[in-house]
């Protein structure tokens, strides 16, 4: 289903007219950052975490934040309201604006380009989660600042497409040392024999996932162990359980990697339990309701 309208550079416009200039630097140079925010039954999910990461990404590439978090929330809420969305996603992109094509930053007065699009639907359906998903390994060909949520996603796009062409749900990115970084649009976790949840530490090789952070809290609250350390593909193949995490996929069990089964080839109990606790947390969201 198409959105009814989008916010583009100060205006709420019908979706079919939601255009940016051909010299927007996001378009020419991927000189832009973005966020994807979940909406669950009308409530924005982990808003502070997403706004904090957006401001961090903007700072990292030297774009002055065009709005405060409060103004951004006001506009985003308006996009949700006008699209009458309940459960869905909000895409927010901020570029360095429009200027004649030239690599150096344009005049500092150039206003950033801002686009917000909301659409219904959040993540794979419950039966996908019940069945589990497969991963295909791909070399991690991305740049060295994967902690910035940049729109320069060509390496991610190619990896995900390669996965989809082989019937896999996601691409598992592996660096030149055989260590797992993350997936093309999600973080990745393994559960070891002792039942510890292992995920790569934050750094410039992965995106600091908001869901990753929330899951780490839920795991610890449950008296279980989170270990943030690099792990290899060999370790992932031998893990008891594997799962990916993101705004849209929550915690999603992985049942095979490159056609080899993870554990007994069925979603494991640890991730099933974690996912259930994450969904309960979504169901208990309250406070400021944005959508219908
Ligand atoms: N890693 C990458 C490369 C991503 O693109 C994403 C989200 O789209 C994530 C991880 C997960 O981040 P979050 O949990 O904030 O959605």
DSSP, total strands: 15
Output the number of helix runs. 8
What structural class do helix, strand and pairing data support?
A: alpha+beta
- Major beta-sheet overview: 9 strands, mixed
How would you describe the oligomerization state of the chains in this entry?
Answer: single chain
Residue fraction in strands: 25-35%
Principal-axes shape call? globular
Mean pLDDT: 97
Low-confidence stretches: none
Order of helices and strands: EEHEEHHEEHEHEEEEHEHEEEH
* Ligand roster: pyridoxal-5'-phosphate
The CA-CA distance between the termini, in Å, is 16 Å
Rg for CA atoms = 19 Å
Helix content: 25-40%
Describe the structure concisely.
The chain is built from eight helices and 15 strands.
Explain how this protein is built.
About 30% of the residues lie in helices and about 25% in strands. The protein has about 290 residues and is α+β, with helices and mostly antiparallel strands. The strands form two sheets. Strands 7, 8, 9, 10, 11, 12, 13, 14 and 15 form a nine-stranded mixed sheet that branches. A six-stranded antiparallel sheet has the order 2-1-6-5-3-4. It starts with a strand and ends in a 9-residue tail after the last helix. The structure holds pyridoxal-5'-phosphate. Pyridoxal-5'-phosphate (PLP) binds near residues 36, 182, 186, 209 and 212. Pyridoxal-5'-phosphate (PLP) binds near residues 36, 185, 207 and 211.
């Amino acid at each position: 289903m198409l959105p009814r309208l989008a916010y583009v550079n100060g205006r709420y416009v019908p979706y079919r007219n939601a255009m940016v200039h051909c010299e927007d630097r996001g378009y020419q140079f991927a000189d832009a950052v973005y966020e994807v925010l979940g909406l669950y039954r009308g409530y924005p999910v982990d808003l502070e975490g997403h706004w904090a990461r957006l401001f961090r990404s903007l700072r990292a590439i030297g774009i002055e934040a065009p709005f405060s978090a409060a103004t951004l929330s006001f506009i985003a809420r308006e996009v949700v309201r006008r699209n009458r969305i309940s459960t869905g996603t909000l895409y927010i992109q901020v570029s360095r604006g429009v200027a004649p094509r030239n690599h150096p930053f344009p005049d500092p007065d150039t206003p950033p380009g801002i686009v917000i699009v909301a659409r219904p639907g959040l993540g794979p359906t419950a039966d996908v989660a019940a069945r589990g998903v497969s991963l295909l390994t791909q070399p991690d060909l991305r740049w060295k600042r994967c902690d910035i949520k940049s729109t320069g996603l060509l390496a991610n796009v190619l990896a995900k497409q390669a996965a989809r062409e082989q019937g896999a749900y996601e691409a598992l990115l592996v660096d030149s040392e055989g260590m797992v970084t993350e997936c093309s649009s999600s973080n990745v976790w393994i559960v070891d024999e002792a039942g510890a949840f292992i995920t790569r530490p934050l750094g410039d090789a992965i995106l600091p996932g908001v869901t990753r952070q929330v899951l780490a809290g839920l795991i610890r609250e449950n008296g279980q162990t989170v270990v943030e350390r690099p792990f290899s593909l060999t370790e992932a193949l031998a893990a008891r359980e594997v799962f990916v995490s993101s705004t849209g996929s929550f915690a999603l069990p992985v049942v095979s990697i490159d056609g080899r089964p993870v554990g007994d080839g069925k979603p494991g109990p640890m991730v099933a339990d974690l996912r259930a606790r994450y969904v309960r947390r979504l169901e208990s969201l309250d406070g400021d309701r944005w959508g219908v």
